[in-house]
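Working notes for the structural subgroup meeting. M.R. asked for a predicted model of this chain before we commit to crystallization trials. I am recording the input and output together here so anyone reviewing the notebook later can reproduce the run.

Input as submitted:
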Amino acid sequence: MLAQSVGEVAARLDCRPYGTDDGTDLWVVSDLTPGLDGAPQRVTSDYVLGISPASTSLAQLTLRHDVTSALDLGTGCGVQALHLAAHADRVVATDVNRRALDLARFNAELNEVGDRIEVRDGSFFAPVAGERYDLIATNPPFVISPATGERLVYRDSGLPGDRVVEHIVRSAPDHLTDGGWCQVLANWAVHADQPWDERLAGWLPDDCDALVVQREVLAPASYVELWLKDSGHHPSTGRGSAEEAREYVRRYDTWLAWLEEQRITGIGFGWINLHRTGGSARELVDWPYDVEQPIAPAIGAWAAAQGSVVDLGSHLAVRADVQQETVGAAGAEDPATILLRQQRGLRRARQVDTALAAVTGACDGDLPVGAILDAVAQLLDLDPEATREQYLPELTAMVREGYLVVAGVE
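Returned structure, recorded in token form:
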């Protein structure tokens, strides 16, 4: 932990307190953060990353219901395994970095959960071949690079492009129990000739419901600069020598040229949630706006709503946090724009017309949907049959997206 010389004591590892959303206080040991002491430093190939924005994002994404078994795929220093140990009877944590495995074991013992966390050496799902888990959480080495041979294990998979994420998404169902979840924090390539959601939809397994949320898209130049800074190769992270500047330019040009050759116009960052239900509900949404954290309860609510179908006898209620916003000229009979906006969870917004706004506003759980639709049709001088045909699918979508709930069902 410490190195002592004649005149001073210096840290060899980072040891810091870490508080979880449920109020648990932990200690997490990892390698030192590059540049923390102001000295130039580059990470080594077996560097073990500590608490990072990515690890806290995955922790907030991961569902926290009680499970029998959980898998932390690519554990690093073991942060996700520590979270999982709070609500799983048994946790398996895997990695290919031997130093990471040592630190993960150390952190499990340090936080007195070593009896519930088993650490295994191996790549991807190889260490758990033939096994199934109720919950898989993974922040894989997802950096999209040309795989030129130089590899930082904590961020580079050794596979070109986003194949590591595709492999995990395609393989995960074979390691999930019925009703099990796989939640992935990932990057993916956005290609010039194909929409991002169309491309990722081709990865999704047939026997899983899937919610994919793209949270951010970076331009290739910004992406390359970000990760060269992360590895300590940017001139601002070193001594600023001419040699370092030339090396930075070489790496930058090689990486950027490869992205251009692949026709990659952007790099998406976000969440892939798979729920092994035997069904195939799909939603792929680009949502870069603020969300409520932790977001896990909203992911669980989305899953619970996917089987919902609204018919004329359904009783619906507006979720308590949904607010209506209208924009229009003063004195106009109808507003130009009506938005329904969630204040919690994903905080989605949905534009609706006057009729759908009226139907939604009348949904308080008392009257069946058929009666509300007929009343709104009469009020707005609409054809009742056409109103039912048009708005029943809209109401189903609003239940699945969390604007409405089936009365009596949380």
